[in-house]
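Blackboard transcription, Thursday session:
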Amino acid sequence: MKKRKRKILTLFDSGALITSAKFRVRDRLIIDYVVDCCRVNLSPEVKHETIDMGLLFGYQDAQDLANRLDKGIFLVLNTAVRDDALESILTNLGLEYADCAIVHTYKSMSSQTKLITDDHRLFISTTRLGFSPIFFPDLILMLVNKEWMKAALATEILEAMQPRYAKGFIDLTLKRLKGVI
Amino acid sequence: MATAVSIELDEKLQRFFSYLQKSKRITSRQAAIDLLNAGYYQQVRQLHNQYLKGDITFRRMAKELGLEYRQLYALFEELNLPMA
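(Written on the board underneath:)
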């Protein structure tokens, strides 16, 4: 009997989550392909920034995210206990309150968890802390490498999200996907 | 929501302001709006450069502009500025 694969455990930052709910591929939002392969977790701060404030401003993607949250498709975690020593380090690294909250939440999760962020400062800071953050386009690549997703679909997803990234950023992921580099 | 403000310009700015009105044939109100907009968008682009280089976080940039996270994401979309 084939062993059922365990979904990839993720903690999403706000930017990556909004982007995932902005674009459609084959009539589905990108977030729907992600939740097929990943357990998507959010910190309360990310939920506030993306869903609560998004609904307040009337964004369709916030409504789409809220609908999925209501169906239990992803999970909002409890507020993480803040480690004072770490908080001071994070503040000195130039992280804001919600950035720090994400790090505290991430630290309280299983070491298998992938932090999905498109924020370079947060990416660098968490890398220096010994974590393994992933830019959102590279999560799509990982889904292909772990045989959760076909390369053709991943290519369409990456091309759909291209408008939110600098020229060259998605190109790199696409080249890695094709095995060029 | 529009806000009216009254400001005093120093001589240098007064001269530039007069030149702007004459050369572009615009009202003083429009000249003031154009100048403020130019300054604002220049600030947005400077902060965006800092954000892309990893000097500041997205949330820091939002704070510097007095915006919520969502509003800054929307501004990036409007100006076609990349998230990464």
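Lecturer's comment: The first strand of chain A starts at residue 8 and ends at 12.
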